[in-house]
Amino acid sequence: MTDNAISSAVIIGAGIFGVSTGVHLARRGIAVTIVNDGPPANGASGRSLSWLNSSRMRSLPYHRLRMAGVDRYRTLSAQNPDAGWLRFDGGLTWDADDERNEIDTAYRHEVSLGYDARRLSAAEVTRVTPGVDARAITPQGAIFNPGEGWVDLPALIGVLLKEFSVLGGVLVTDQGAARAVIEGGRAVGAETAKGGRFRADAVVLATGPAVPKMAAESGLAIGDGTPLALLVQTRPLAHPLRAVLNTPRVAVRPAPGGTFALDADWAAEEGVKRRADGRYEIDEAVVAALLAEAGRVMEGNPRLDVATVGVGGKPIPGDGEPVVGAFKAVAGYHVAFSHSGATLGLIVGELLADEIATGTEHPMLATFRPERFTAG
């Protein structure tokens, strides 16, 4: 236990950001309560592709944060070598055969950063990583990133919550929507739709796609670029594919128990409609088309059968960069909101907890402050 600027915290949201932050605060001896509207991982964390990477192009601070995030998963993997929910078998990506193909540019950028990348022709892919139908790869070739991996977030959240409980953390579920309680310009706790009130020295907002709206209710602005996302989980299938595939028409990620997770932007855009009552209507023909697209890029072109379909918002800030840290306008109020929640999950929880516990800003989060949306 270390000297802390605070003694208690309440976290709204039991996805990966909320639970990771809660565990890191509890490790410091802080009394933590996590409040969630339903069971843990019932939001974006439960329907995430969860590909661990920093491939392609982005700002250098964001790349560094993602690389630190992947590093924490490597430590976790070394501590849990037999975990079926965390693997580092690489990632393979290729683009469509048209003017938008950026494989050469992406490869050169990754190499310039020292990011482990191999440029492969279709014929070379089958010798490097198994389970891919080389005929699907476009003439420009593919990039294989051997240091990439994947995690099953609901399983990881379950592991973290066990430690959280041992450390004395309190998890409160199925409370309906919650909101931060702000008195005299300071966040002093949270209250839920079912009447629960939880006082604390610090409040963390970690509700995924709901963050911008909830922040706005407290007069705080966060740019919102959240689209709808659709994640299909397949039934178990004996297949040699181990790497995560990011292809023009489908992303394919191995999952525990011989299953696969699939997503694609076009599938969410074409296959999901939100009804007036707030529920989602899913086009089964689009789901079937997504399964077929996955089968086409996998060796042997297997038939994939759907097990579950998850639909909801994919948390993406308006400028695409993470939003992490304290709201300067409301003392004691902190936020974690970002795309790539899986890759960033452990490191964001660690760094945000450090800021909350010590009252000192971490330099790796300097460009990700929420105030950038109100500056000027």
Describe this structure in words.
It contains nine helices and 22 strands. It has helices at residues 16-27, 60-79, 103-112, 122-128, 153-166, 211-217, 265-271, 284-297, 341-358; strands at residues 8-12, 31-35, 51-52, 86-87, 91-93, 118-120, 142-145, 149-151, 170-172, 178-183, 186-192, 197-199, 202-205, 228-234, 244-246, 251-255, 259-263, 272-274, 280-282, 306-313, 323-326, 333-337. Helix 1 (16-27) runs parallel beside helix 9 (341-358). The longest helix is centred in the first third of the chain and has 20 residues, at 60-79. The protein is globular. The two termini are 40 Å apart.
Number of strands: 22
Which class of secondary structure composition applies to the elements?
Answer: alpha+beta
Question: How would you name the CATH homologous superfamily of the largest domain?
Answer: FAD/NAD(P)-binding domain
The rounded Rg comes to 21 Å
Strand content: 15-25%
How many domain modules? 2
Terminal CA distance reads 40 Å
Count of helix runs: 9
The best one-word shape is globular
Mean pLDDT: 96
Question: Which blocks of ≥5 consecutive residues have pLDDT under 50?
Answer: none
Key phrases:
376 residues; alpha+beta; FAD/NAD(P)-binding domain; D-Amino Acid Oxidase, Chain A, domain 2; eight-stranded mixed sheet; globular
Give the helices and strands, then pairings.
Layout: E1 8-12, H1 16-27, E2 31-35, E3 51-52, H2 60-79, E4 86-87, E5 91-93, H3 103-112, E6 118-120, H4 122-128, E7 142-145, E8 149-151, H5 153-166, E9 170-172, E10 178-183, E11 186-192, E12 197-199, E13 202-205, H6 211-217, E14 228-234, E15 244-246, E16 251-255, E17 259-263, H7 265-271, E18 272-274, E19 280-282, H8 284-297, E20 306-313, E21 323-326, E22 333-337, H9 341-358
Parallel strand pairs: 1-2, 1-13, 2-9, 5-15, 13-22
Antiparallel strand pairs: 3-8, 4-8, 5-7, 6-7, 10-11, 11-12, 14-17, 14-20, 15-16, 16-17, 18-19, 21-22
